[in-house]
Amino acid sequence: MKYPCMSIDVEKIRHNAVTVSRLLAASGLRFVAVNKATCGHPEVARAMLEGDPLAVADSRIENLRRLRESGYKGETVLLRAPSPSRCAEAVEVVDTSLVSEVAIAAALGEAARARGKEHKVILMVDLGDRREGVLPEDTPDVARAVASILGVRLAGIGTNLACYGAVIPTREKMEELLEVKEKVEEAVGFPLERVSGGNSANIPLVLRGEMPRGITELRLGESVILGTEAAERTLIPGCFGDAFTLHAEAIEVITKPSMPSGKIGQDAFGEVPVFVDRGNRKRAILAIGRQDVDPDGLTPIDKGVTVLGASSDHLICDVEDAEEDVKVGSVLSFVPNYSALLRLATSPYVEKVVKKP
Ligand SMILES: *Cc1c(COP(=O)(O)O)cnc(C)c1O
Question: Is ligand 1 within 6 A of the CB of residue 229?
């Protein structure tokens, strides 16, 4: 075995996908599988398909292309609007794009017409999170403009909360989206097929039975991959929270004073660190760093281990109270949160190992 590596238990992802898909179905919602946190890992995608998703969605064209090339025939959704220079590629690989600008929809329409295709778009509405989306009052006019573009079909509207502004999805926000939908239908003169209500932060609403009828789907990544809802990060009943685990090897284990010695300036990332004097402590340096992982997003699996910090290539852990005797070559294991997983998946230095059942 080579380290560092991220172990992927696809059986647990399969289980989570089926669990959240059933949970959604009970509220009349379809599951859209989002696999961007793993860089579109093909075996994770295959496991997510067990949840019978309406579509597979990703923020990157590259990931959706790989999925297509692996033989996936279902609908693909691009979560981040394509750049103007990449609309031709988007039309080639993707069925549906989430958009918030008429200019992007127009570029998609032009690219689609050139290929004798029709491209579906979902117009995003900003209900307060202040990432992508048209303001609610402007949505009917923008929708009319989008609907008039040849080569583009306005399939519906959508919203995304709890990403930039950390605005919590509530029943009121979902009802506001449904009001916007009615106004859009009046403006364009045809019914919208889809109302895409949000991401894993909407799960608590579903669990409380508060999703209003009329929302057709949720786009879910974290809840399937990590088993957690994205509002307060609690485990969803019946889901596994440890489908992904990080394993890294100790390259130094020395007992040292917990306080640095000397005049304190800036650390490797321009921060001025603060330390607590706990006397001499046994510390392990693991061969992984900020280039590969967000150290703040790691929960040690081994009892008595705590993460102290990291530089680009060194993860420093306190192992004084570790149950196992940690030595050079010892492998410590961690469960990553979303931010840690994202970086682990993206790092070419971390081997991805799919656990065979
Ligand atoms: C990433 C993303 C999602 C999925 O978010 P999760 O919290 O992982 O479920 C849904 N919609 C959009 C637009 C996204 O960018």
Answer: no
Instruction: Give 20 Cα–ligand 1 centroid separation in angstroms.
Output: 15
In angstroms, rounded to a whole number, what is the distance separating the alpha carbons of residues 75 and 133? 22
How remote is the C-alpha of 218 from its chain's centroid?
A: 13
Structure-token pair, residue 243? 């489908």
* Separation of alpha carbons 257 and 282, rounded Å: 9
Query: 80 alpha carbon to ligand 1 midpoint, in Å?
Result: 10
Q: Which two tokens stand for residue 317?
A: 């852990």
- 32 in ligand 1 pocket by Cβ < 6 Å? no
Is residue 326 within 8 A of residue 319, CB to CB? The reply is: yes
What distance in Å separates the CA atoms of residue 266 and residue 273, rounded to the nearest whole number? 7
Looking at the CA of residue 37, tell me the nearest atom of ligand 1: 8
Please indicate whether residue 48, judged by its CB atom, sits closer than 6 Å to ligand 1: no
Alpha-carbon distance 14 to 3, whole Å? 26
Q: How far apart are CA 45 and CA 76, in angstroms?
A: 12
Residue 307 structure tokens? 């993460």
Measured between alpha carbons, how far is 333 from 33 in angstroms, rounded to an integer? Answer: 27
Q: Which of 48, 163, 233 is the best mutation target for the ligand 1 pocket, counting ligand atoms within 8 Å of the beta carbon and taking the most?
A: 163
Cβ neighbours of 190 (radius 10 Å) = 9
Q: Is the pTM of this model over 0.85?
A: yes
For the chain, what percent of residues have pLDDT higher than 90?
A: 95
325 pLDDT exceeds 90?
Answer: yes
What is the best residue among 160, 195, 196 to mutate for testing ligand 1's pocket, by most ligand atoms within 8 Å of CB?
A: 160
Measure 41 CA to ligand 1 centroid, in angstroms.
16
Task: Output the CA torsion sign for 8, 9, 12, 14.
Answer: positive
Distance (angstroms) between ligand 1 centre and the Cα of 278 equals 41
Check whether 357 has a pLDDT greater than 80.
no
Which pLDDT score, from 0 to 100, does residue 274 have? Answer: 87
Active-site residues, by number, are 36
How would you class 305 by CB atoms within 10 Å of its CB: exposed for 0-12, middle for 13-18, buried for 19 or more? buried
Maximum alpha-carbon separation in the chain: 73
